[in-house]
Write a structure and sequence with these properties.
With about 120 residues, the chain is mostly helical. The protein has five helices and three strands, in the order αααααβββ. The protein has one domain.
């Protein structure tokens, strides 16, 4: 079995875990806040306006697992449930992307990822 199905399964697990962390850390947050934070990492796609190399670098910074985990750890250290929940939602976003097959971008173009090529061939 190739690594991609495992990476997709890992992404799904981390997405569910991130949602659970967010729900436990900030149960009073409404759907608009959750949606805004869940979609925020995709703002890094704006880097592609400056070209594929910078676009891939910025996109990847917003779509790594480590920064989300670090934000949660910082939240624990500071006693901030908002940072913990924000990190959980960020982790959920990245995990969902991986589960759907959207990987880290290669500098050759947006459709080229570490999990393979995405989108329709045309």
């Amino acid at each position: 079995m190739s690594a991609v199905p495992w990476q997709r399964a890992e992404g799904a697990g981390l997405a569910l875990g991130g949602l659970l962390v967010a729900a436990l850390a900030a149960p009073g947050w409404g759907a608009p806040a959750w949606l805004a934070i869940l979609l925020a990492p995709d703002l890094t796609m704006a880097g592609y306006l400056a070209g594929p190399r910078l676009g891939a670098a910025l996109y990847n910074l917003g779509h790594l697992y480590a920064p989300a985990f670090l934000l949660m750890v910082l939240g624990v250290a500071l006693g901030s449930t908002g940072l913990i929940a924000g990190g959980g939602l960020w982790l959920a976003h990245v995990g969902f992307d991986r589960a759907l097959g959207y990987g880290l971008k290669l500098p050759s173009g947006f459709r080229d990822t570490h999990l393979g090529r995405i989108g329709r061939e045309g």
